Amino acid sequence: MVGPPPQDTATRLIGIIFGPPGSGKGTQAARIEAEFKLKHLSTGEILRAEVARGTPIGKEAGRIMAAGDLVPDELIVDIVRGRLPEAEAGAGVLLDGFPRTLRQAQALDAMLAEEGHRVDLVIALEVPEADLIERLLRRAEVEGRADDTRKAITERMHEYHKLTEAVLDHYARQGVALERIDGTGTPDQVFDRIRKAVPSSLAGEGAPGRKGPGRVGADAS
Ligand code: AP5
Ligand code: MG
Fold this sequence. Notes:
The chain is 53% helix and 12% strand. By secondary structure, it is of the alpha/beta class. The two termini are 25 Å apart.
């Protein structure tokens, strides 16, 4: 039953890969994209590209990101609104780094509701904070990402606990399928856990009549 979900509009999958900074969202999203054909949409990557190109958005976001703070909700929601239709056009989309506040989650829900969709699946990566910090400091030595300094990492963790964690409860309360995945071990081990946990959610009740765990009209309470 493992395999890409069907591609008609009614069965498109809207997934979120969720977790604190350094938990492996980007690493696992790339693998999920390759295996399940869900388009990986990372707001962090989009913003870093804007910063690199020196665009007005990049100029606004760059300093905020380097400090480890969140960019304004309106800015990020506009970015996602502009990109979501194309990103979800195939098998569906896997959102990485968005939504990150309750306001963003509400904006996403409203966007999806306009087309009769809702979030189907949240994959939440769980990694102890000491491991996260170690991973990010190691990456700092290799890649030099502007927000991988000790100070910015502390702020990113703080913002995660203060504003982002609540997004998980928001979707749990909606009855969206939530897969909590142990994000420790090697990237391959983590992906194996995702693969084992996710197929039933992805394939749902079986195509073409896939109910989809969070599909509008399905009995997700
Ligand atoms: P964003 O780019 O989303 O960064 P983040 O959430 O801080 O997370 P990272 O990208 O650092 O980590 P990750 O979970 O993707 O893990 P990764 O796979 O890279 O956001 C950056 C900033 O942009 C925000 O702080 C904010 O300013 C702004 N922003 C973005 N979205 C926003 C939004 N919606 N609203 C407002 N502001 C927003 O792995 C991390 C490292 O660990 C890598 O080096 C990797 O190789 C390694 N690694 C991965 N898996 C493993 C493993 N299993 N074992 C060992 N090492 C591993
Ligand atoms: Mg990332």
